[in-house]
Amino acid sequence: MNKEIQQIVDIVSSEIRAIIDPEGILFAVSGGPDSVALVDICARHIPQIKERMHIAYIHHGLRKNADKEKLFVKNLARSLAVPFHCKKIMVKRKKNRSLEEQARIKRYKALVEIARKYGCNSIVTGHTLDDQVETVLLNLATGTGLKGLCGMQPVSKIENLLLIRPLLSITKKQILSYLQERKIEYLFDESNIDTRFKRNLIRYQILPLFEKINKGVKKNIYRTSRILTDDFDYIDTQSKKIVQRKIVKKKGLVEFPIKSFLGMHISLQRFFLRNILMELCKLDHPPNFMTIEKIRLSVISHKKIFVDKLKIYLGFKEEKVVLYEKKTFESFPEKPILIKTTGITEIPGTGWKIKTAFRNFSKKFLKNPNPLAAYIDPDKITDKLVVKKPEKDMPFVPLGMGKKISFKKYWKTHKKKISSFIEFPLIVEDSGEIVWVVGGHISQQYAISKETCVLEITARKK
Predict the structure, then answer these.
(1) Digits of tens for pLDDT over the chain (462 positions)?
(2) Per-residue DSSP letters for 267-311?
(3) Quick check: 57 and 66 in contact, CB under 8 A?
(4) How many alpha carbons lie under 13 Å from residue 350 in its C-beta half-sphere?
(5) Which CATH class name applies to 3-225?
């Protein structure tokens, strides 16, 4: 065995020995050079891994050669006397995600399903240093924080299973040399040279330009990703220590002092929020930079917001920030609450108060800038006003819209704006007719005019 081949074997042996449990190990094999070389190295040189090895091929249904690849991988598994598994997945185009991203998500999901079914606690993939470099550049180009610039990790977790990438420090060139030395056959995927895919565009057009500047650019980018990983781990560890000291956890919410947050370095602020959100929202992956930054700036400006993507609210209680998950209308009283004709009505269990008063008409009421105030024509009310939990199919014509819609459709369109003022919409109605969605529109049929007395309704929280 020549020196270069021995070096590759030593690296893989060192990385894959991170798997210490005695359960099965699932190798994701496409038939391409990387995964074929990885399987051969483990089968030839690491007997304790080989005896626990399972091989899986994920059939995407996207390429005409997929059936040929499946057969190749199946025969490879048979030649090694290793169990073979195959799962077919369907990948559909979505507006917000590329075909590559969709395929990746479904591929990992399929691998997890196979691993659990056949008693494997670890999944091994053949990503190389070249793949790592492409990932870092792709993350940089599409917009990322420190985490994205760290790229893939040699050892990580996926749904409580160990995910190992033992080839991350080995180049594609080294892999091809190993295969040539061993005279091992592998398949070539034609889609890997299609520059319509972003990763291939980086591989064949962007990286060659970088190499004109510095031939060692790949190893330099890889080294940078390792350094940034160390930096990320340090900041993340310090942030978690602060989280443990500063936050108060209750059912469905967390609180932390505003003063302590404002005293943190901006980097720690982001990591602090990142760790809180992952725990509060039970996320497998951290929120993106823009979401975290939106919340961070809202804390600094003392502004209440609803984060639709995470389904959480940010509010304030005395000198504390409160972040909590809350289903729409979750704590709203089930039974209608009668509103006083004039005076203040408290809504039990919510902290909200509704105040009503009669006013003389004023032009300023027609251009009402306050989302927590409504001005209606009392002569058009035929029954007592109540506050009640909204029904999705309640129809009404929002002022100025001129078209009857259901509350469900109205809420879907206006939820984000309304929730920046209140935690949930209070519906003020009489005899099944919506009078006002607090924080939003009044119904067209209760609109005021110059000849009318005006009923002012305001909402506020303690």
Answers:
(1) 688 888 888 888 888 876 777 889 999 999 999 999 999 999 999 988 999 999 999 987 666 778 899 999 999 999 999 999 999 988 776 655 677 777 888 899 999 999 999 999 999 999 999 999 999 999 998 888 888 899 999 999 898 899 999 999 999 999 999 999 999 999 987 777 777 788 889 998 999 999 999 999 999 999 999 999 999 999 999 999 999 999 988 877 899 999 999 999 999 999 999 999 998 888 877 888 889 999 999 999 998 888 878 888 888 888 999 998 765 444 566 678 899 889 999 887 677 889 999 999 888 888 888 888 999 999 888 888 998 877 778 888 999 888 899 888 888 888 767 765 666 677 788 777 899 988 889 999 999 987 778 999 998 876
(2) HHHHHHHHHHHHHHTT-SSPPPHHHHHHHHHHHHTT--EEETTTT
(3) no
(4) 27
(5) alpha beta
Q: What angle do CA 61, 62, 65 make, to 5 degrees?
A: 85
User: 208 CB contacts (<8 Å, ≥6 apart)?
Assistant: none
Among candidate residues 19, 92, 94, 27, the one with its CA nearest the CA of residue 58: 27
**What are the residue ranges spanned by the domains of the chain?**
3-225, 247-325, 337-461
CB-CB neighbours of 210 under 10 Å? 16
Residue 343: exposure state from Cβ atoms within 10 A (0-12, 13-18, ≥19) = exposed
- 337-461 CATH: 3.50.40.10
CATH 1.10.3210 fits 247-325, yes or no: no
